[in-house]
Amino acid sequence: MKRRYNLMIVLILLTATSCQKWLDIKPENQQVTSDYWANKEEVEAVLGAAYVTLQKSVKDMLYYGDARGNTMSLSGFIDVDLIRLKGFSILPSNKFVKWSNFYQIINYSNMVLKYAPDVVERDPSFNQAVMESYLSEAYFLRALSYFYIVRTFRDAPLLLEPYMDDQAAYEVVKSSKDQIFKQIEADLNAALANSKEIWPTVWETKGRATKWAIHALLADVCLWMGEYDQAIISCNAVMESGKVGLLQGMVNTKNNWFTIFADGNTNEGIFEVQFDNTKAQTNELMNMFGANYNWIISNYALSLFAEDSEDIRALGGSYAADLKIWKYLGAEGGTTIPRPYSDQNWIVYRMADIYLMKAEALIMKGEEYYPAAIELITAIRSRAGISRPVDPGNTELDLLHVLLKERAKEFVGEGKSWFDLLRVAQRDDYKYKDYFIESVLAGNAGASSPVIRAQLMNEDAHYLPIHIDELKHNRLLIQNPYYEHLN
Predict the structure, then answer these.
(1) DSSP characters for 413-471?
(2) With contact defined as beta carbons under 8 Å apart, do 67 and 95 qualify?
């Protein structure tokens, strides 16, 4: 969030079909004026700009959710700021602790929420139902953005109005983690009211907010809030929708699980950030994992895969022989055929996540629900070709450990590892802090482990610092406590 938001709106060049309209995104600068909100196309342009900024946020999603986790290690070309992020030696000047992309999405969403209703009166072609479906998308995008912010920075400014004046300072105090979570939940409930089950094309159904994407996000949010019954309700809504399903693992001799990433927009996908090289839309995933790579699979993750030689997500699935993350680099599973372009979708939610989120909620509801949770975990393991039964152990933590190991293998490099560990750790006043620290250290073995262990004893260190630029531009911001002496 900057003192002066750049209010240059990305316009979408509308073409004949709905698919082309949302894929052919070409940036053009257009200053917001009092006359801007005149027709449906201008509402679509601002909403489209939010999705474009979501494309730009993929690196943030990966680093926020995985860099401090235990399933990836640094290798190849290593930026010093990445070393510090992975090693918990983080300064407020670190370039990877910026939240500006998410606040830009929030601002675009706030614009749509505030001004789209007025356009219905100005443009006869813009009917109430269409407008309300756009509001549903805006609520979803705002909620998703705040969800990344609150899990990463904890307390942060809560902005519910668009910033339209480019000439004045914009200074806002931080809201608490609980306030932000309550707003996210309210936004998602508002989004559900007028959500679409499908869009006209497959890529839109996977790449724009739908009822199932909203439920997936709501289930995740409820796990963080300790609202396990609601998490189960949202998971059940997706599982019973008939619109998405768990993809088959092996089809004849083909690793069909791999098509989730290589092809994208499969039946398993619920919400995927869309990229298409033919539309000049690419991402940095092949650079981060391939050519000038930063990340490889960690020794800890390798040890998990070594438990079951049958696992189709292991060598040739999640990773290659050189330990690079093959799910983003390969054209086919179990081969050495590379992808031609870095335009794979970034998957935010897919059906495996629903199964395992529901399993987690059932575990947290108590011992009588353990058999149902084990059944869901087993379904994911069976899809991966694993025949060995789950050993649930004797305690809640034992079964949570089984769950987290399965999530670690299923979602390598998908921006979830750190968030999974933190979510489980912080429940019930950090009941499982020791487990959390040991799990993080499993992916950070070495001479720095004692230092990292000491840092993680301080719960404030579980969140990133506010970047120094934000503190300069917003004088009402207060640095996260752990980093105050580093300013």
Answers:
(1) TSS-HHHHHHHHHTHHHHTTHHHHHHHHHHTS-STTHHHHHHHHTSGGGGSPPPPHHHH
(2) no
Per-residue b or e along 372-407, where b marks 16 or more CB atoms closer than 10 Å to that residue's CB: ebbebbbebbebbbbeeebebeeeebebbbbbbbbb
The β-bridge partners of 136 are: none
| Residue in the structure block whose two tokens are 């939940």 | 185
* C-beta of residue 409 within 8 angstroms of C-beta of residue 399: no
3-state SS track over 120-185: HHHCCCCCHHHHHHHHHHHHHHHHHHHHHHHHHHCCECCCCCCCCCCCCCCCCCCECHHHHHHHHH
Residue from 105, 130, 131 nearest 118 by CA: 131
Its sign, for the CA torsion 257, 386, 336, 67, is positive
Asked if residue 415 lies in contact with residue 378, where contact means CB atoms within 8 angstroms, the answer is no
pLDDT along the chain (487 residues), means of 10: 37 32 37 72 97 98 97 92 95 97 97 96 95 98 98 98 68 96 98 97 98 99 98 98 97 97 98 96 94 93 98 98 97 96 97 98 98 98 98 97 98 98 97 97 84 96 97 94 86
Burial of residue 276 (number of CB atoms within 10 Å: 0-12, 13-18, 19+): middle
- Give the pLDDT confidence score for residue 445 in this predicted structure: 74
**CA–CA dist 120, 112 (Å, integer):** 12
> What's the DSSP call for residue 472?
H
CB of 188 within 8 A of CB of 172? no
Q: Which two tokens stand for residue 119?
A: 């356009």
CA 399 – CA 360 distance, rounded (Å): 9
Question: Whole-prediction pTM value?
Answer: 0.94
Query: What's phi and psi for 319, nearest 5 deg?
Result: -140, 165
CA 414 to the chain's CA centroid: 8
